[in-house]
């Protein structure tokens, strides 16, 4: 794995992204609703975000841990699956 910005191999592969805006710390996450128009059962799927951070230039990319579950929820929301 090399940095896409500077081609350095000094990439930290799996960094927790911490939200300090609350009293305690929370890991940053994303959510997708499989049923976005539902009142209660929205089919909410959460996934923690992790970062890859370049130790040379600081270039950072994000990826969702449960990307497959997010994609399935998105496809359901779009009516592509049942
Ligand atoms: Zn870099």
What key phrases describe this protein's structure?
single chain, 82 residues, four-stranded antiparallel sheet, two-stranded antiparallel sheet, flat, binds zinc ion
What's the structural blueprint in terms of helices and strands?
Blueprint: E1 11-16, E2 18-19, E3 26-27, E4 29-33, E5 44-54, E6 60-64, H1 67-77
Antiparallel strand pairs: 1-5, 2-3, 4-5, 5-6
Unreliable stretches, pLDDT < 50, 5 or more residues? none
The overall strand count is 6
Main β sheet profile: 4 strands, antiparallel
Tell me the number of structural domains.
1
Give the overall shape.
Answer: flat
Bound molecules: zinc ion
Q: Report the structural category.
A: mainly beta
Estimate percent helicity: 10-25%
Please explain how this structure is put together.
- This protein is mainly beta and 82 residues long.
- The protein has one domain (11-77).
- It has one helix at residues 67-77; strands at residues 11-16, 18-19, 26-27, 29-33, 44-54, 60-64.
- The strands form 2 sheets. Strands 1, 4, 5 and 6 form a 4-stranded antiparallel beta sheet that branches. It has a two-stranded antiparallel ribbon with strand order 2-3.
- β2 and β3 (26-27) form a beta hairpin.
- It is flat, with a radius of gyration of 16 Å.
- The mean pLDDT is 94.
- Residues 3, 5-6, 8, 54, 56-57, 59 line the site of zinc ion.
């Amino acid at each position: 794995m090399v940095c896409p910005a500077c081609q350095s191999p000094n990439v930290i592969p799996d960094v927790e992204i911490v939200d300090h805006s609350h009293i305690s710390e929370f890991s940053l996450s994303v959510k997708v609703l499989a049923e976005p128009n539902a009142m209660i059962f929205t089919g909410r799927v959460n996934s923690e975000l992790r970062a890859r951070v370049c130790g040379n230039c600081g270039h950072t990319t994000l990826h969702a841990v449960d990307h497959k579950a997010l994609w399935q929820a998105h496809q359901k929301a779009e009516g592509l699956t049942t």
